[in-house]
Amino acid sequence: MFFKLATKSLSSRRGSVLLTVIAMSVSVYALLGVDHIRSQTKDSFHSTVSGIDLIVGARTGSLNLLLYSVFRIGNPTNNIDWHTYKSIISDPKVGWAIPIALGDSHQGYRVVGTSRDYFEHFSFGNKQKLEFAQGNSFKRVFDVVLGSEVAKKLNYTIGKKIILAHGLGKTSFSLHDDNPFTVVGILRPTGTPVDQSLQVSLEGIEAIHFNSPGSMENSSLENPSTQLLYEPEKITAFMLGLNSRLATFSVQRSINDSPLEPLTAILPGVALSELWQMMGILENTLRLISGLILVAALLGLTAMMLASVRERQREIYLLRVIGAPPVFLFLLIQLEALLVSVASILIGGAGLTLSLNAANDFLSYNYGLHIDALIFSEGSIHYALLVISATALAAAIPALAVYQSAKAK
Amino acid sequence: MFYLKFIFYSGDDTVYLIGLHLFLSVESASIMTIELKNVCFKYPQSPESTVINIKSWAVNQYERIFLHGPSGCGKSTLLNLLSGILRPSSGEILVLSKRLDLMTNRQLDRFRANHIGYIFQQFNLVPYLNAIDNIRLANQFSKKARGSLLQENIVNLLSTLGIEDSDYCKPTEQLSIGQQQRTAIARAMINEPEILIADEPTSSLDKMNRDVFMSELHQMVSETKTTLIFVSHDLSLSDGFDRIDPLSDINS
After folding, report:
1. Are residues A365 and A388 in the same domain?
2. Which end of chain B is more exposed for a tag (fewer CB within 10 A), N or C?
3. Domain range spanning residue A78?
């Protein structure tokens, strides 16, 4: 009966109640959205690199290097000479190296020129290795391995011939169309930018820029003469795995001080935490704004309830006369506010889930961010509880007003 | 017959005997339902004007009292005192042999829910609830909650009072004033109160509805053996009452 009284009372004032619910829903949407995207971004970024000790690129800021080499965001400042690369990886402390050459694309997806070590040593998430869903690594110059997303979106299968474009963007005019590549492998989904890229050999990258005759198409990478012919001049960056992690800092220093050319070596973990420090300011600003939206919405709720208390003086008196204690009236107002707040959490949460679903493709395509549309996490439950307790606090003002006027009669 | 009453005051760790009352009571022929002794009431906002000052006034069990007086003479205040919504500034109010002026707020709320039915001039029902829910709500606060029988009781009451089945489930704001006032009788009677207080319940009704209301009220009161305090400025409604008390006579 108590519950019925509250719901019927709210529905009898549905105009103002609905507006309040909308305002509250928007604030819940913002609050949960900021928190969810923040934590998911963090997870997504953190799971992109693992098991890599150093990333090396031309002299630049560590964040820039991290972003373009791993996340494929932004552009490299300069290239590294192939001989520099060769001489650095000849250091006995280096266990393995993955060279990376960026700059080409296919249908808006980035092409990564690399070596076969990429599939052997690159790992993500919790030190998981890349795995092939179909086919296997490239063996010939014009072989290509697709990320899962690329294969799915473009509907490519093994054996498909594709043409790479110079530069990024879907509509490049400079196509390397005399050198079609053949799909030989498709990777399993990883939830990292690897899903959005096409992997080819460095020799392949070099070959298409060479403008070489099509006869090279079938040249094997194992054939030493081919390798020599297409030996790359420049690469964009490379990743290193060391034999002993203890050597990380000394190798980093020697690379940074390299006399061959100005280079930057970064520890991905350190660069990531630098990134989070920077993001922290943004995060806190967003959190503050969503907090303020919540405060504004709660003030709206309080104002609506206070106005209703004034309208309902006679109802309050009637309830008193039929025996309702003042506490009952206090709780009635609180319950009404709580119902508004719970409805808002449900609506805001549902809205957020829907829009995350809709934005998922956009985010993963453009930023390589994989945002899970399921917003039920410990964090979101905390926020829901926070909203509910803030509501109880805000509703205490009209509830106390009712309590007082009930007592006075 | 006489008895002693000890009044104790309990301090931090000592109990003081601060008073000793000796009562001498005479068994009266009829049982008093309401008894007022030297009741005085002033609003705290205006302590200089005494609204109610009643030396002595009593209502017997099953009596039907017609309290008559112009508006503004303290009728509503008196009714609020009788139902325990207001407390007297001084004096004793006995209802069903209980001292209302000594009860705690919580006890007063309970007492009112259990023993007193109340009908106003208007706004007797929560407008957005239907008739049945309004009556259920009134039952909620009483200890006489009846569980599964409640629905049956409510329907019986409503049909006795001439409310159509089709109107049971409409929000009461959609009912006519006449229907609302009759539903108010049901709402007031659901907990089988010993006392029914009606404060100008017919003044917003037309002649026909007023006659229906009065006959339903009298019938209900006589069937349930309820003490009735009916307040009105309209003496033409005083048929069927046991006593007509002009308020100006009892309130000096």
Report:
1. yes
2. N
3. 54-266
State whether A322 and B171 contact (CB < 8 Å): no
Q: What are phi and psi of A119, to 5 degrees?
A: -75, -20
Contact between B146 and B153 under an 8 Å Cβ cutoff? The reply is yes
- Final residue belonging to a domain, choices A266, A287, A319: A266
**Number of inter-chain CB pairs under 8 A, A vs B:** 65
ipTM of the shown complex: 0.81
Nearest CA in chain A to B82: A321
Q: Could you report the per-residue pLDDT of B196-217, keeping only the tens digit for each?
A: 999 999 988 999 999 999 999 9
Counting the structural domains of chain A, the total is 2
Q: State whether A33 and A76 are in the same domain.
A: no
Are A391 and A338 in contact by the 8 Å Cβ rule? The answer is yes
Mark yes or no for CB contact B123/A407 under 8 Å. Answer: no
Q: Extract the tokens encoding B93.
A: 């109010």
Strands ordered across the beta sheet of B195-199: B116-119, B195-199, B227-232, B64-68, B243-246
The domain boundary residue, chosen from A228, A246, A266: A266
- Reported as a single tens digit per residue, the pLDDT across A303-360 is 999 999 888 888 998 998 888 889 999 999 999 999 999 999 999 999 999 998 888 7
Residue of B nearest to A5 (CA): B129
Residues A229 and A248 in one domain: yes
Residues of chain A in contact with residue B112, where contact means CB-CB under 8 angstroms, are 321-323
